[in-house]
Amino acid sequence: MANQQRNRNTAKVSMCVKYTMVFMNIVFFFLGGAILGFGIWGVYSKDISAITSVIESGSISVDPLWVFITIGCIVVVLSSVGCIGALRENTTLLNVFRYSMILILLLEVAAGVLGYFYQEEVIGSIENFVNRSMIDYQDDPDTQFIIDTIQDYLQCCGINEPKDWEVNKYYDCNGIAIVTKCGVPFSCCHDEEEGVVNYQCGNGALSLSTAEQSQIINTKGCKEAVITWLTSNLIFISIVVGSMVLLEIVALQLSVSLIGDIKWIKARW
Predict the structure, then answer these.
(1) Virtual CA dihedral for 3, 264, 248, 35, nearest 10 degrees?
(2) What is the pLDDT of residues 235-249, one digit of tens each?
């Protein structure tokens, strides 16, 4: 009886498994916080007056930046559940974490498989989305923010060329606009010195020759720029994606091992 009581008192979960899981969930927590912070920064950085006008007009669409906020919140909450579950050795929280990780991995695999087998459809959908975004550019601050960020960072303009911006009624050379007619957004322009942004720099750019345009705006299409960026950063992207999936699998295995230890200890009581 004394030996049995001593075995009960000395039975413990693996400290290595427990605190490794705690550490990994802290990493996930800060990663989720970074994603959440980016989404909040994006929403905060947009023109407040433009957002107010959209809300007042009633034409509210889903803000893509809220996707980052949602993902960030999910990661923060899930990592908190895993961390607390490991520290408190709570099987309920650990099971929530485990099944959530399984669901996330299944969704990632499904997305990867569908993306591989339906590449043309995915590319076509992205082009249609970008084309609609260009049409709504002046009327939707959400898409305006995203397009400006992409064009400025990749130094590109339009989907295939700057002329693509004629789909927007404000930039159409045959449109009704006066000031912006036959122009492109300021994010198509070359970077200004000393951080000064000239929002009229692209006015009338589409009426110029290609050589003249190149002096003012970026003439490379964003489709080509994205492909170039992905190709040049393929190794880095693969390492990042692979590392994230590996971390998720390890975290899942740690939760399963920890739950097994806790159940084994409880069975000895």
Answers:
(1) -80
(2) 998 898 888 889 889
Task: Give, to the nearest 10 degrees, the angle between helix 15-45 and helix 234-267.
Answer: 130
The domains of the chain are located at 2-118+236-267, 121-227
- Contact residues for 104 (Cβ-Cβ < 8 A; gap 6+): 248
Half-sphere exposure of 53 (CA within 13 A, CB side): 10
CATH class of 121-227: mainly alpha
Instruction: Give 201-260 as a 3 state SS string.
Output: CCCCHHHCCHHHHHCCECCCCHHHHHHHHHHHCHHHHHHHHHHHHHHHHHHHHHHHHHHH
Neighbours of 233 (CB within 10 A): 11
CA end-to-end span of the chain: 12
Is 8's pLDDT higher than 70? no
pLDDT in tens, 34-78: 999 988 887 776 654 444 444 444 444 456 678 888 999 999 999
